[in-house]
Amino acid sequence: MRDVAARLNTVISWVPEQFGVDPDVASGPLSGLRIGVKDNIEVGGVRSTCGSEYFADRVASADAACVTALKKAGGVITSTLNLAEFAVGVTSQNSASGGPVNPWAADRVPGGSSGGSGVAVAAGIVDVSLGTDTGGSIRLPAACCGVTGLRPSVGVLDMTGIFPVSADFDTVGPLARSAALVRETFAVLAGADSAPLRSGSLRIALPWPFVTEDVDPAVRDAVVGAADLLRDLGHSVVDVPVPHSESAQDVVYTLIYSDLAKTHAERLRDEPSRFQSATRERILLGLSISDGQVTAARRHRDVFRAATAELFDDVDVVLTPAMPADVPLLGGGDAVVAQARRMGQLTYPWSLHDGPTLALPVGVHPSGMPVGAQLTAAHGAEATLFALAEQFQEHTDWHRRRPPVRVDV
């Protein structure tokens, strides 16, 4: 097993020489919390590498809007965190800084693309981290590392100062050990009330199958167990399908990869060898997508969103697994498109939805790795997710588990 120092070297991109707290915000809602920021989110005066050789010496001129909000609330930015190059990849192994590993097991991936953000929270390096999520990049690290992470509703948070993947799908959001701390951080980012909302009796859909019937039995048991607890807590759990979910992943891939190719076409033409191989592979896939395929994918996106809006007229929350299988071993990883598709099989459909999804731990696989689930609600209904997740976490301790490699505080 790699030692702690080796792990931290592949998690943290930058640590300031000294920390400071603005006395004007010393009593803010996030006062004194250690916050790590994914390294595609700009921190003024600090290298902002996006995990890429292309940006190895790039220094941000100003804070991203989300960083400004956290600082004003008293949060202390203690580090920038490693990621998959240009936030593309579900294992985070395609980084110019080297791939971070999972603190639960050194031979497992931490998820991606916000791999460092998941590891830093799980290992106790920070209290809160920021990640970005286009196809699952907050939810997958949360699930793999046994923490809680929010993909907010599309368009509710300011993305200024964040390097883009696909404008139609990009979001920024917090990861923390508990849903309560995720809620408090999101409230700062959104300029909203952070007071907890108590959940009344909710109608929760547990669609089975969701996208695929090929789900690891241990994952299914953990998610069903979560549903059973929610039922015991007074909620209604119903089997309601998510329309068009079986084709959603291909639709999202088409639109994201097309945008990705446009963003990086010049770099691919001029200096292709500077990309990590897995990143280059995805950009090349994007170049093969035609305008007609993009137009068709946009139509499918609109159909999916309309059907999902109707679904949330009938139910309050949808409960699904975060991944269909156990946390993958290192090796192959992002160079194998099939493995990447498998990991993101259940997160990509909710990227096509414009509402929020919260990932949280709901069990332990026989391998010893965390099992994560997703709670999804209508656009703007983050408060409903927080209320339900906080109630769940009051009656479980999955989010309190600590990995064998951690920084004790």
UniProtKB/TrEMBL annotation:
Gene3D superfamilies per record: Amidase signature (AS) domain
Residue ranges of every copy of the Amidase domain listed in the record: 27-385
Gene: gatA
Name the record gives this protein: Aspartyl/glutamyl-tRNA(Asn/Gln) amidotransferase subunit A
Listed SUPFAM superfamilies: Amidase signature (AS) enzymes
Record organism: Gordonia terrae NBRC 100016
